[in-house]
Amino acid sequence: EGALSTVPVGWRPDFDEAGLDAARRQLRAAVGALAALAARTDRRVVLALEPEPGCVLETTDELVSFIESLALPEDQRPLLGVCWDCCHVALAFEQPARSLATLAAAGVPLAKVQLSTALIWEGRDPTPLLRYTGDPWLHQTIVRDRDGRLHRYADLGDAIAARPDAADEEWRI
What we know:
There is one protein chain. By secondary structure, the chain is α/β, with parallel strands linked by helices. It has five helices and eight strands. The strands form two sheets. The chain has a four-stranded parallel sheet with strand order 1-2-3-4. Strands 5-8-6-7 form a four-stranded antiparallel sheet. Strand 2 (45-49), helix 2 and strand 3 (80-85) form a beta-alpha-beta unit.
């Protein structure tokens, strides 16, 4: 067995309904090709979508709903799974046990697991976090405000600029 991980459809701002329809068609075709490969070689390869902040699929629930929307034939469902990134789960303020239980209940294969960490920050002045900006990687940031609402930012610098006073907030980067 093997697994290939891939982006969770794409970057959310870049997708409209037509783009989602095209992505669904392409994923159905990819899973169909993996089914043909398995039939021909007796080797199973799972395509693993990796939910990630800022993308079309950010959360476990979005992933499960999207996979269900594909209406894959029953014999192909085991060939589309998840690359479960514990940093992305933490960033989305999901509970790991609930996330994994949701995937299991939906029959979504856990094809890969990525062990990494999210930075959790609580404070008043977010400027000390500036030291984490500036390299070529995105540092997606989700802020839970004092009322429990989540605010999503494509990069840490955007969050710092938008929220210079972060009193009573929890940031996950």
